[in-house]
Specification:
With 862 residues, the protein is mostly beta strands. It is 9% helix and 39% strand. A hairpin with a 5-residue loop joins strand 17 and strand 18 (248-251). Helix 8 (710-717) crosses helix 9.
């Protein structure tokens, strides 16, 4: 039979903007109808087929019924090469618990009638020409109440895209985006055009706004400024952390993609004011800021544009903000990833979980970094994924990477022997998603895309093709490791989306969009306006439908560490759990602020009492949402309380952070590392004596490897025989330089596999170029660079067209060889003094073949 190519994937958000091809994917009571969509490729390559409206239908029944009811399908929309049809199954009269079965009949004018049945997962479709087979394996769904899947509220419009979101001590939510309106440039300095060929648009300004969850009101804050008091400080792509007194410290910000501000700014929610504070050592774009037990803030990573060198550089110097000043501490001696995922453990150490290798940082003295070589992420580099401190010392890392993975791991930072341990995978692969701790200790995952693609493509970084964004939320239970699929939200929430827990136990999901496609090319443009979301939805988890919320009738406004305090509530004997969740502060898939403490409690004389966390290591000072959770698992509306900072600890850290003490007390490697990338480059070049090799690296990050460098840097350092990596890649040519331990040649037969195991497809190793010096020999009419030391002989051949490893960003391909490069081998062969003469130097792409090594000659120096 000539079957058509129609499909029905219930969990996929197709067509564009739809929560699923079965909408709602998990129908909850009350819902009057469930809409079923089919997709059909009607033109283009492959097996296109023209689906007809007449004759196409959905047939459904309750499992207890004998007969099927037919609902005709009608044309819905066309997107690119695909057409979509829909039919609504009326279910308003079905009781909760009813199981509904259905299958699809697709009629064509150029194919046989095709039936769509479910595969074993019930989330994909199978085509068949046998209607009886489709009836025997139908799709199913159950009419459920929201206590099973939760419930999304209607989308509502925001004043801007919610790319950065923070719950304030007042219970209001502070948000900001990238620019105040689409008529502004996406950048501030230099401003960029809105489309190729147009003059630059007005520079982007970014005015934060506050949303009131109680009544939906939104008001703009004043614009943050630089230290001059007038110039707008665009806080897009900044890092942020709450201070102990409830103010929000924002570090870095946006000039242009990869070009970070060196400014830090403080928002005071009580006064609704922005105040510029100290400048940092240099700019930071995509930095992480986390609250330390001392009440100070650790700031690290980010990129900036160095005017003297005319290039983007990764900021290698971590700094600690305390009392209005920044103090630099030691670097780990290599590039960070952007927005590194950092967590404070109960020991006071800070751990970075987002590279393949896990690192610890002791911030005391001048700072000491320790790589944990045996503590590796089992899935390799998994960027743009949430790392969630779901209990004291316990971290969940879920998804991320390219192609996106569904795998999830946990690590317990309190253990003597640290190790990542696999928990159950999510139901969907995801990247660009968010993870939110809930009051009962479960973790809610929302948004993200399941799609991936080749490095250098938009799909690799943020795949928004129909069906790739994941709308179905998932809930992870740390007690069982199980993931439960929940209701699907209406909107794509991928790159630049956020999610925060609100004091009433619901979750705000917002944002997405406002990025530049084809970064670095003459064709660079803003993403399609339909992919930028000036809206939000509020999710009510299933626990809010399991009974009335318990109420906190009284609780203190502040507590000290170790305090025992009373919590007023009508039925104290019904309270099973008391939790403290730090006010969230989230951007770019990482909520650096959130962490949870479960408080010991008791009931005496009918009064519920709880004991505050014992110290600042397990609960850094600041504001927290205090929840009580009853025996049915229903949380209260939170009381926001302040956990006080111990004055002695703050004084101790201020003393340890003095620059002089740091320099005197740090080890030699730490003193060497506590410098910028240019100084580290000089140190590396002075120390390197082995073979120099240049690697061509393509990343999925649209901002190029000059900024998105941490994962590639780590992978290069792990390659066999590599001793040093130049800390600054060549962003214009998308290459990086490494130095081997001696004069050997790169083990290319191993490198590609080693590199890929670390990063999967987040980066691609395009090839390796070397520069070698030696004498030339002629062997059977073949020119050979004679072996020397540990270097074997190398056959010399002409440069292949398109064989350069240097990248042309505009053309999105290898740089074209110039005349001198294309003719370099001929120049060598024509030189009468080449063979047997004094040593000469050849440069070009190196390849390992069955007979040894072969170098394509791109440059030759006599």
């Amino acid at each position: 039979m000539a079957l058509g190519n129609a499909w029905h994937f219930p969990g996929n958000p197709e067509p564009f903007g739809n929560a699923g091809m079965r909408d709602p994917v998990f129908p909850t009571d009350p819902v009057s109808a469930v809409t079923i969509f089919s997709g059909n490729q009607y033109q283009g390559g492959g097996n296109p087929g023209n689906q007809l409206q007449d004759g196409s239908a959905v047939l459904f029944k309750q499992t207890t019924d004998a007969a099927w009811t037919t609902v005709p399908m009608v044309f819905a929309t066309a997107i690119d090469d695909n057409k979509y049809y829909s039919a609504a199954i009326p279910i308003g009269a079905f009781a909760a618990g009813t199981v509904v079965q259905y299958y699809l009949v697709i009629a064509y004018d150029d194919h046989d009638t095709t039936f769509l049945q479910a595969d074993v997962t019930d989330m994909l479709s199978v085509t068949t020409g046998d209607q009886a087979a489709a009836q025997a394996a139908p799709f199913t769904f159950t009419i459920e109440t929201p206590d099973k899947r939760g419930q999304w509220g209607d989308p509502f419009t925001l004043l801007n895209v919610g790319i950065h979101a923070h719950v304030l001590p007042t219970g209001l939510v502070l948000m900001w985006g990238r620019r105040d309106n689409p008529q502004q440039s996406l950048d501030t300095d230099p401003a960029s055009p809105l489309a190729p060929g147009l003059p630059p648009a007005p520079p982007a300004t970014c005015t934060p706004f506050v949303w009131n969850p109680a009544n939906g009101n939104m008001t703009q804050t004043p614009q943050p400024t630089l230290n001059d008091g007038t110039t707008n400080a665009n806080l897009f792509c900044s890092g942020h952390a709450f201070l102990p007194d409830g103010r929000l410290l924002v570090t870095g910000g946006h000039l242009a993609d990869s070009h970070g501000l060196n400014q830090a700014t403080i928002y005071d929610p009580a006064a609704d004011t922005w105040t510029p504070t100290a400048v940092m050592n240099d700019g930071r774009w995509y930095p992480t800021a986390i609250a330390l037990p001392s009440g100070s803030v650790l700031v690290l990573s980010g990129s900036y544009f160095d005017l003297t060198q005319n290039q983007v550089v990764n900021n290698l110097i971590p700094q600690i903000w305390s009392d209005g000043n920044f103090t630099s501490i030691a670097s780990m001696g290599a590039a960070f990833d952007l927005f590194p995922r950092m967590h404070v453990a109960s020991t006071g150490l800070v751990y970075m979980t987002s590279l393949v290798q896990t690192w610890s940082l002791d911030v005391s003295g001048g700072g000491t970094w320790t790589p944990l070589p045996d503590v590796l992420q089992p899935n390799g580099l998994c960027d743009y994924a949430p790392s969630v401190l779901y209990d004291v010392d316990k971290v969940l890392f879920a998804g991320g990477g390219n192609p996106p993975t569904a795998n999830a791991e946990t690590i317990d930072l309190s253990q003597a022997q640290l190790a990542w341990v696999a928990t159950n995978p999510m139901n969907f692969p995801r990247r660009q998603h968010n993870g939110t701790i809930l009051p009962d200790g479960t973790v809610l995952v929302t948004g993200g895309t399941r799609g991936g693609g080749a490095p250098g493509t938009a799909e690799a970084f943020n795949d928004l093709d129909p069906g790739q964004p994941v709308h179905i939320a998932e809930l992870w239970d740390p007690k069982t490791g199980q993931w439960t699929m929940l209701a699907a939200e209406s909107t794509d929430r991928c790159y630049h989306s956020t999610a925060v827990l609100l004091p009433d136990g619901t979750v705000l999901s917002a944002g997405g969009g406002e990025f530049i496609l084809n970064e670095g090319t003459p064709q660079q443009v803003a993403n399609n306006p339909q992919d930028t979301h000036y809206d939000a939805q509020v999710f009510s988890p299933p626990y809010l439908f399991k009974g009335p919320q318990p109420q906190i009738t009284s609780a203190p406004d502040s507590v000290n560490y170790g305090d025992t305090f009373e919590i007023g509530t009508a039925q104290p004997e019904q309270i099973a759990t008391i939790s403290l969740i730090r006010l969230p502060s989230v951007t770019h898939s990482f909520n650096a602020g959130q962490r949870i403490n479960f408080l010991p409690s008791q009931i005496a004389g009918g009064t519920l009492t709880a004991t505050a966390p014992p110290n600042a290591n397990v609960c850094p000072p600041g504001h927290y949402m205090l929840f009580i959770v009853n025996l049915q698992g229903v949380p209260s509306v939170a009381k926001i309380i302040q956990v006080s900072a111990p004055a002695a600890a703050a004084a101790q850290v201020r003393e340890a952070a003095q620059p002089e003490a740091a320099a005197a007390g740090a080890s030699a490697p730490a003193r060497q590392a506590a410098t910028d990338a240019f100084a580290l480059r000089a140190t590396v070049r002075a120390a390197a004596s082995g073979t120099r090799a240049v690697a061509g690296i393509t990343g999925i990050c649209p901002y190029g490897i000059a900024a998105c460098w941490g994962g590639a840097n780590e992978a290069l350092r792990s390659l066999e025989g590599v001793q040093y990596v130049d800390p600054i890649p060549d962003g214009d040519r998308s290459t990086a330089t490494v130095y081997l331990e001696d004069d050997r040649l790169p083990a290319l037969d191993h490198w590609d596999d080693q590199f890929r195991r670390m990063v999967h497809q987040t980066y691609e190793l395009r090839g390796v170029e070397v520069t070698l010096t030696g004498t030339i020999e002629a062997r059977n009419d073949v020119l050979v660079l004679a072996g020397e030391g540990r270097r074997p002989p190398v056959e010399l051949v002409p440069l292949d067209p398109g064989g350069k490893i240097q990248w042309d960003t505009a053309a999105q391909g290898p740089q074209a060889a110039g005349p001198a490069e294309a003719g370099a081998y001929d120049t060598l062969t024509r030189s009468a003094g080449a063979v047997g003469a004094r040593p000469l130097t050849v440069t070009g792409p190196l390849h390992q073949v069955q007979t040894g090594y072969r170098l394509q000659v791109r440059l030759v120096e006599f």
